[in-house]
Design goal:
Blueprint (H helix, E strand, L loop, with lengths): L1 E6 L4 H12 L3 E6 L2 H14 L5 E5 L5 H9 L5 E7 L14 H26 L6 E5 L12 H23 L5 E6 L3 E2 L2 H6 L6 H4 L4 E2 H13 L4 E4 L6 E4 L17
Parallel strand pairs: 1-2, 1-4, 2-3, 4-5, 5-6, 6-9, 7-8
Antiparallel strand pairs: 9-10
Helix pairs in contact: 1-8, 3-4, 4-5
Length: 258
């Protein structure tokens, strides 16, 4: 059996992505902190797709040790697709932001994603049909006021994944790396980013996508040869694109190792 791994699977885009891949007949490994949400999701999937295998991993990926243990726990599974969806945001000025929250956000959005991506690439880069999809944001291509640090984490995700995509292509690897960059999407993101118990997307944004729509966009990216799937922050149109950041592979000023 082959498996699709999805982190941050207990709600929002991750949860809808799990359901979308289940509809494709994919066996799943779903990871998040909330076991009860994962169990409910597993039951929902198996009611509709009883022949699928759905494996639950309860894990807090903001803890470095957990990241390595999580990946190691999957050594007996044959992986096909890895989707790094786990992450959260923060709205506040740099001067006022809660540094304990920021520290956790940096570990989850950047450190865990980098480690899991690297381990997956190391083990599966030459396996035909494998894909790595990392969740960034349109804030990973545009600096949003009062979300500077969050955007910086997503700029990292975007540049890291685009650079990895070039690296895989240039070395003749079989794996493809891709980045999905949503705009405002109705999830628990708003509550977490603003440190509130309730959040009204109609009041805050007016225009936004649902998690189900974003999962559909992710599948379009998955089915394509494009590296980037991005939502235009002004028009909310979804576009498939080549990498957007400059890649200096032809520069005479690169380091020479020979």
């Amino acid at each position: 059996k082959k498996y699709t791994v999805i982190t941050g699977a207990s709600s929002g885009i991750g949860r809808e992505t799990v359901k979308a891949f289940a509809n494709r007949g994919k066996n799943l490994i779903v990871a998040a902190r909330r076991t009860e949400n994962l169990e409910a999701l597993k039951c929902e999937i198996l009611e509709q797709h009883p022949t699928l295998d759905v494996v639950i991993r309860t894990v807090d990926l903001s803890v470095l040790e957990n990241v390595y243990q999580f990946y190691s726990s999957l050594k007996d599974f044959r992986l096909e697709t890895w989707i790094n969806n786990a992450g959260f945001g923060n709205y506040d000025s740099v001067a006022q932001q809660d540094l304990r929250k920021i520290n956790t956000m940096l570990r989850l959005n950047i450190e865990a994603l980098t480690i899991l991506s690297s381990l997956f690439v190391r083990d599966y880069k030459n396996t035909p049909g494998t894909q790595l999809i990392n969740l960034s944001s349109c804030g990973g291509y545009t600096i949003v006021p009062t979300a500077v640090t969050y955007c910086a984490t997503k700029f990292y995700v975007s540049t890291f994944t685009e650079g990895l995509s070039w690296e895989l292509i240039e070395t003749g690897a079989k794996m493809r790396a891709k980045v999905l960059a949503p705009a405002a999407t109705q999830t628990e993101f708003g509550k977490k980013a603003n440190n509130v118990d309730t959040y009204d997307y109609d009041k805050a944004f007016g225009t936004y996508h649902t998690s189900q729509q974003m999962a559909e966009f992710l599948l379009k990216l998955y089915d394509s040869d494009s590296t980037l799937g991005i939502v235009d922050r002004e028009t909310f149109q979804f576009e498939l694109r080549p990498p957007m950041f400059p890649y200096a592979n032809g520069s005479t000023h690169n380091q020479h190792t020979n």
